[in-house]
Write a structure and sequence with these properties.
Blueprint (H helix, E strand, L loop, with lengths): L20 E8 L4 H21 L2 E9 L9 H11 L5 E4 L2 H4 L3 H14 L2 E4 H5 L6
Parallel strand pairs: 1-2, 1-3, 3-4
Protein backbone atom coordinates (compact mmCIF):
# COMPACT_ATOMS: atom_id res chain seq x y z
CA UNK A 1 0.00 0.00 0.00
CA UNK A 2 1.37 3.38 -1.01
CA UNK A 3 1.20 6.49 1.09
CA UNK A 4 -1.09 8.81 -0.85
CA UNK A 5 -1.09 11.65 1.61
CA UNK A 6 0.11 14.95 0.35
CA UNK A 7 3.47 15.93 1.81
CA UNK A 8 3.25 18.93 4.10
CA UNK A 9 3.95 22.24 2.45
CA UNK A 10 6.96 23.97 3.82
CA UNK A 11 6.68 27.66 4.38
CA UNK A 12 9.30 29.90 5.81
CA UNK A 13 7.96 31.56 8.92
CA UNK A 14 8.04 35.35 8.96
CA UNK A 15 10.43 35.38 11.89
CA UNK A 16 12.56 32.27 11.89
CA UNK A 17 14.44 31.41 15.05
CA UNK A 18 17.74 32.07 13.33
CA UNK A 19 17.14 35.84 13.28
CA UNK A 20 19.05 37.17 16.24
CA UNK A 21 20.65 40.37 15.01
CA UNK A 22 19.09 42.96 12.72
CA UNK A 23 19.88 46.09 10.80
CA UNK A 24 17.03 48.52 11.55
CA UNK A 25 16.25 50.78 8.59
CA UNK A 26 14.10 53.90 8.53
CA UNK A 27 13.36 56.35 5.72
CA UNK A 28 11.34 59.48 5.16
CA UNK A 29 11.07 61.41 1.92
CA UNK A 30 10.95 64.78 3.65
CA UNK A 31 13.94 66.15 5.53
CA UNK A 32 11.64 68.25 7.74
CA UNK A 33 10.38 68.08 11.29
CA UNK A 34 7.43 66.05 9.95
CA UNK A 35 9.86 63.61 8.30
CA UNK A 36 11.84 63.36 11.52
CA UNK A 37 8.69 62.57 13.50
CA UNK A 38 7.78 59.86 10.96
CA UNK A 39 11.29 58.36 11.31
CA UNK A 40 10.91 58.39 15.10
CA UNK A 41 7.58 56.53 14.85
CA UNK A 42 9.22 53.92 12.59
CA UNK A 43 12.10 53.59 15.02
CA UNK A 44 9.76 53.13 17.98
CA UNK A 45 7.81 50.39 16.16
CA UNK A 46 10.98 48.58 15.05
CA UNK A 47 12.45 48.72 18.56
CA UNK A 48 9.21 47.37 20.05
CA UNK A 49 9.26 44.49 17.54
CA UNK A 50 12.94 43.82 18.25
CA UNK A 51 12.21 43.71 21.98
CA UNK A 52 9.24 41.40 21.41
CA UNK A 53 11.23 39.04 19.14
CA UNK A 54 14.38 39.15 21.27
CA UNK A 55 16.48 40.63 18.48
CA UNK A 56 19.63 42.67 18.94
CA UNK A 57 19.84 45.78 16.78
CA UNK A 58 23.35 45.80 15.26
CA UNK A 59 22.81 49.19 13.59
CA UNK A 60 20.20 51.88 13.16
CA UNK A 61 20.29 53.35 9.67
CA UNK A 62 18.20 56.24 8.40
CA UNK A 63 17.74 57.78 4.98
CA UNK A 64 16.10 61.12 5.72
CA UNK A 65 15.08 63.13 2.66
CA UNK A 66 15.54 60.16 0.31
CA UNK A 67 13.06 58.86 -2.26
CA UNK A 68 11.71 55.32 -2.10
CA UNK A 69 11.86 54.92 -5.88
CA UNK A 70 15.60 54.24 -5.94
CA UNK A 71 17.86 51.77 -4.19
CA UNK A 72 20.77 54.20 -4.48
CA UNK A 73 20.54 55.78 -1.04
CA UNK A 74 23.48 56.26 1.34
CA UNK A 75 21.80 54.56 4.29
CA UNK A 76 20.44 51.60 2.34
CA UNK A 77 23.84 51.13 0.70
CA UNK A 78 25.45 51.03 4.15
CA UNK A 79 22.81 48.58 5.42
CA UNK A 80 23.36 46.25 2.47
CA UNK A 81 27.13 46.40 3.00
CA UNK A 82 26.73 45.40 6.66
CA UNK A 83 24.46 42.52 5.68
CA UNK A 84 26.93 41.37 3.00
CA UNK A 85 29.60 41.34 5.74
CA UNK A 86 27.38 39.05 7.88
CA UNK A 87 26.87 41.71 10.56
CA UNK A 88 23.16 40.81 10.91
CA UNK A 89 20.59 38.16 10.01
CA UNK A 90 17.91 40.51 8.69
CA UNK A 91 17.09 43.95 7.38
CA UNK A 92 14.02 45.26 9.22
CA UNK A 93 11.91 48.25 8.21
CA UNK A 94 8.55 49.50 9.40
CA UNK A 95 6.86 48.62 6.11
CA UNK A 96 7.83 47.71 2.57
CA UNK A 97 7.50 51.29 1.30
CA UNK A 98 10.29 52.38 3.64
CA UNK A 99 12.63 50.04 1.73
CA UNK A 100 11.29 50.69 -1.75
CA UNK A 101 8.13 51.69 -3.53
CA UNK A 102 8.85 49.61 -6.65
CA UNK A 103 8.07 45.93 -7.04
CA UNK A 104 11.16 45.36 -9.16
CA UNK A 105 13.32 46.73 -6.34
CA UNK A 106 11.50 44.55 -3.80
CA UNK A 107 12.35 41.50 -5.90
CA UNK A 108 15.95 42.68 -6.28
CA UNK A 109 16.33 43.03 -2.49
CA UNK A 110 14.75 39.61 -1.96
CA UNK A 111 17.18 37.99 -4.43
CA UNK A 112 20.13 39.71 -2.76
CA UNK A 113 18.96 38.53 0.67
CA UNK A 114 18.49 34.97 -0.54
CA UNK A 115 21.93 34.88 -2.19
CA UNK A 116 23.67 36.27 0.88
CA UNK A 117 21.65 34.41 3.52
CA UNK A 118 19.78 37.19 5.29
CA UNK A 119 16.12 38.20 5.37
CA UNK A 120 14.00 41.25 4.61
CA UNK A 121 11.35 41.74 7.29
CA UNK A 122 8.82 44.47 8.00
CA UNK A 123 7.06 45.25 11.24
CA UNK A 124 3.71 45.58 9.48
CA UNK A 125 3.99 42.15 7.85
CA UNK A 126 4.96 40.57 11.18
CA UNK A 127 1.98 42.13 12.91
CA UNK A 128 -0.61 41.13 10.27
CA UNK A 129 -2.87 38.30 11.35
CA UNK A 130 -1.90 35.06 9.66
CA UNK A 131 -3.69 31.70 9.67
CA UNK A 132 -0.27 30.01 10.02
CA UNK A 133 0.55 31.59 13.38
Amino acid sequence: MHDTTTPPTTTTPATPARVRTIIAYTRARQDTSQGQRWVQRQRTAIQAEADFQGWTVAAWICDLGQRGTTLHRPGLTRALALLAEYQADALVAYDQTRLTRLGSHQRQLARCAQRQGWQVLTVQALREPSPHR
